[in-house]
Specification:
Elements (H helix, E strand, L loop, with lengths): L4 H13 L3 H14 L4 H13 L3 H14 L4 H13 L3 H14 L4 H13 L3 H14 L4 H13 L3 H14 L4 H13 L3 H14 L4 H13 L3 H14 L4 H13 L3 H14 L4 H13 L3 H14 L4 H13 L3 H14 L4 H13 L3 H8 L9 H13 L12 E5 L4 H7 L3 H4 L5 E6 L4 H7 L4 E4 L11 E4 L4 H4 L18 H12 L5 E5 L8 H4 L8 H4 L4 E4 L6 H11 L3 E2 L10 H10 L3 E4 L2 H9 L3 E5 L11 E2 L2 E2 L5 E5 L7 H13 L2
Parallel strand pairs: 1-2, 1-4, 2-3, 5-6, 5-8, 6-7, 8-9, 9-12
Antiparallel strand pairs: 10-11
Helix pairs in contact: 1-2, 2-3, 3-4, 3-5, 4-5, 5-6, 5-7, 6-7, 7-8, 7-9, 8-9, 9-10, 9-11, 10-11, 11-12, 12-13, 13-14, 13-15, 14-15, 15-16, 15-17, 16-17, 17-18, 17-19, 18-19, 19-20, 19-21, 20-21, 21-22, 24-33, 28-32, 32-33
Length: 667
């Protein structure tokens, strides 16, 4: 005699409670053979199939059970969950609502409704559902967590962090909450806090590849490229198929100038996602950094093939063409980028540089002046945000009898360059206040005693002005054609005479002809392309009778010593001048020399402003700044400076030979 269905169901419940799902299911199947429309057997077997991961079979069983008892809240609850687990959230919604209608105080029903709404992209409604669950149980950990995830998806990061903190109050070791807390801090640009949350997540969940990946992103945003690389490698050790980790590993390697390894990382990522436009974009950027511009264009074309509406790809393609001196192609690419995003900062700045480099100042300044400076340049972020917060208007170029603040925006060299327009501006009716790097205040103050110069770092506390403009933006008012450059007095800065005489006497001890030398740029993005090794400059000693003194900023002790051992040439150093911090001293030292040879750095700007003769060694492609126009071999901005450019990307031989000849011919 077979057991009765009721007894089988009772035994199945006992087995279910003991965790023996397989035997419980067999008992329920036997009960259903005897009574195919037994509600309890269908319902419980559906729950078991759901726990066993067979959501579709579970849904079929719940569907039959609902026909038998449509007013049972839990069968609607379980049916909705099974449909959601099967990826059928749209079909699950009516049953979520039925479960809630039949038992509105069941917090899990509201939670699951929120989950389905979230899966359907209805984030605001999902948050409302989680709020209803929390109204029933204010300490409902999962509801706080899910609400935090939704708020994060909506970009409401402060609210998300609050919700996640609430979830952690009741479950402090809940790793996913720490992971999403890291994402919330990342969304707010709080990367130190993101690192702390991410590390806590990994303590609790060491195999979480995404959490390790997120650490890499935060390290990258903090400029900590070595740590970012380690984090991405940790993520990939946990999940070698994490394509975005391979991609960002390439980004970190590229930032470390380990270009072949970066390309290998991108290629590995492309085996996982071959049609990934962002990967091809990154690969194009690495080729550009390597000076392989044709390969960069090919990679960027692939990126555009997969995403033709990304303005970054078009702007980067324009830069590659610009570095190849293919100017029409560069212009067309920049304009395509701007057609997609008229306010794209990179494209605006690049197109501005394009026109400015071709001496089309009117068009060039127009684009250049629209760039988003506050997000790029250090002192600009302070100056621009401060002036805009106070409501002071941007100067329109009209002469008025008021106080005009001119604020600096870039590095020392750029401040000196654009400072060439201050003498002309000082003749206008405005009372000028100019914010500069503190190291330049003495030099400009001596040259323009009628102008008030202030430390750029004090700009937040300065409010005694009526209108404002950035120093570089003076170009759109005062330098609209080549003839306008005749308005610059040369020299427009002057070194301290007594200090210059004192340093000249010191240099006389080295020989009758002493020239200055600067060979490095420390620019984080393009410094390597602008820099040379001292060994490359040995012809300056071998082929001229000049003695050479160090004008390079930074500690050059080891490089000078190594150069001396390798070549037996001496590069002299006057220790009483700090070439980085003491620009007054550097100016005097430059003028104590008979001339100088330098790469593109702040030294050449200072020498040009002082009117000292010099040879500038300029890159061919990446690293050549737009303002190094050559007019009959001389700089348009600094007529005392001769420009000698690489013959091809990375090839300094011709430029060094020309600079050597320049020194030999100088008397």
């Amino acid at each position: 005699m077979f057991p009765q269905p009721g007894a089988l169901i009772q035994q199945a419940v006992q087995l279910f409670q003991q965790g023996d799902l397989v035997r419980a299911a067999k008992h329920l199947q036997q009960a259903l053979l005897a009574q195919p429309k037994n509600f309890d057997a269908l319902h419980i077997l559906g729950v078991i199939r759901g726990l066993q991961g067979d959501a579709k079979e579970a849904a079929k069983l719940f569907e039959k059970a609902i026909v038998l008892n449509p007013r049972h809240p839990m069968v609607h609850f379980n049916y909705a969950k099974a449909l959601s687990d099967a990826g059928l959230d749209d079909k699950a919604l009516p049953h979520h609502h039925s479960a809630i209608e039949l038992n509105p105080q069941h917090k899990e029903s509201w939670l699951n409704l929120g989950r389905s709404l979230a899966q359907l992209g209805r984030h605001e409604e999902a948050i409302d559902a989680y709020d209803r669950a929390l109204a029933i149980d204010p300490n409902f950990t999962q509801a706080w967590f899910n609400a935090g995830v939704m708020l994060s998806a909506l970009g409401r990061h402060p609210d998300a962090l609050m919700a996640l903190d609430r979830s952690l109050q009741t479950a402090p070791d809940f790793a996913p909450a720490w992971q999403y807390k890291a994402l919330g801090h990342m969304g707010l640009g709080q990367h130190e806090q993101a690192l702390n949350a991410g590390e806590r997540c990994l303590q609790l969940q060491p195999n979480n590849a995404e959490a390790a990946y997120n650490l890499g992103v935060s390290h990258n945003q903090l400029g900590q490229n070595e740590q970012a690389l380690q984090a991405y490698e940790r993520a990939l050790a946990l999940d070698p198929k994490l394509a975005h980790a391979w991609s960002n590993k390439g980004v970190a390697l590229n930032a470390l100038r380990r270009y072949p390894e970066a390309l290998a990382a991108y290629d590995h990522a492309l085996t996982l996602t071959p049609n990934n436009a962002e990967l091809w974009l990154n690969k194009g950027g690495t080729f550009t950094d390597m000076g392989q511009y044709e390969l960069a264009i090919s990679a960027l074309d692939r990126s555009i093939e997969f995403n033709a509406i990304n303005p970054r790809a078009w702007s980067n393609k324009g830069t590659a063409y610009q570095n190849l001196h293919q100017y029409e192609d560069a212009r067309a690419a920049y304009e395509e980028a701007l057609s997609l995003d008229p306010e794209n900062d990179a494209a605006l700045e690049n197109l501005g540089h394009h026109y400015l480099s071709l001496l089309n100042f009117e068009l060039g300044w127009g684009y250049y002046d629209r760039r988003g400076m506050a997000t790029k340049y250090g002192t600009t972020g302070t100056g621009l945000s401060t002036t805009e917060r106070r409501g002071n208007p941007l100067w329109d170029g009209q002469a008025r009898e008021n106080r005009l603040l001119v604020w600096s925006e870039q590095g020392i060299g750029d401040q000196i360059l654009y400072g060439s327009m201050l003498a002309q501006l000082s003749q206008w009716s405005q009372q000028l206040v100019v914010a500069l790097d503190a190291r330049l205040l003495g030099l400009f103050g001596r040259a323009l005693p009628g102008v008030e110069f202030i430390d750029a770092k004090s700009l937040d506390q300065f409010d005694a002005f009526d209108e404002h403009i950035s120093l570089a933006s003076l170009g759109r008012i005062l330098r609209l054609k080549v003839d306008d450059f005749a308005q610059t007095p040369h020299p427009y800065l002057n070194a301290d005479i007594q200090r210059t005489d004192s340093l000249r006497q010191a240099l006389n001890g080295f020989g009758p002809r002493v020239w200055g030398l600067s060979w490095l740029s420390k620019n984080a993005d393009i410094g390597a392309e602008k820099s040379l090794g001292l060994r490359q400059l040995a012809p300056l000693w071998a082929q001229t009778d000049a003695q050479w003194v160090d004008l390079q900023y930074g500690d050059t002790t080891l490089e000078r010593a190594s150069f001396g051992r390798e070549t037996s040439h001496a590069l002299h150093k006057l220790e009483e001048v700090d070439n980085f911090h003491d620009l007054e001293g550097l100016a005097a030292l430059i003028m104590a020399c008979q001339g100088l040879v330098t790469t593109s750095n702040s030294t050449v700007h200072l020498a040009g402003a002082l009117g000292q003769r010099g040879a500038l060694l300029a890159p061919y492609g990446k690293g050549k700044l737009w303002y190094w126009h050559s007019v009959n071999g001389h700089s348009l901005w600094y007529p005392s400076i001769r420009i000698f450019e690489q013959s091809a990307n990375g090839n300094w031989d011709q430029a060094i030979a020309q600079a050597t000849a320049f020194v030999k011919e100088a008397t």
